[in-house]
C-alpha cells in the first residue's frame, strides 16, 4: 500500500438565510449547500453549485465514509435530495 497525501476540501456555502438560521433562530443544523473538492477536482458540486442538505448530519456522514474512500473503496453518502 502506498501512502499518498491528498488535499480534500469540503466547502459549505452560506448566505444571509444561513446566518439568520444559525444566529437568530439558534439552529445548529441548518440547510445549506455543500461541495467536495479533491486534488483540485470537484467530486460533488462545483465552484458555483453544491448539494443541499442539513449541515451537521451530512458532515458526519462524509467523515464516516472517509476510511473507505481512503482505501479506494466506493462509498455512497446520502444527501437530502438522495444518494451521491
Keywords:
elongated, 84 residues, alpha+beta, two-stranded antiparallel sheet, 2 helices, 30% helix
Description:
This protein is an alpha+beta fold and 84 residues long. Helix content is 30%, strand content 31%. It has two helices and six strands. The protein has helices at 16-24, 55-70, and strands at 8-13, 31-38, 41-44, 51-54, 78-79, 82-83. β5 and β6 form a beta hairpin. It is elongated. It starts with 7 loop residues before the first strand and ends with a strand.
- CA radius of gyration is 14 Å
Instruction: List low-confidence stretches.
Output: none
Largest sheet: 4 strands, antiparallel
Distinct helical segment count: 2
Order of helices and strands: EHEEEHEE
Structural class: alpha+beta
List the helices and strands and how they pair.
Blueprint (H helix, E strand, L loop, with lengths): L7 E6 L2 H9 L6 E8 L2 E4 L6 E4 H16 L7 E2 L2 E2 L1
Concise summary:
This protein is an alpha+beta fold and 84 residues long.
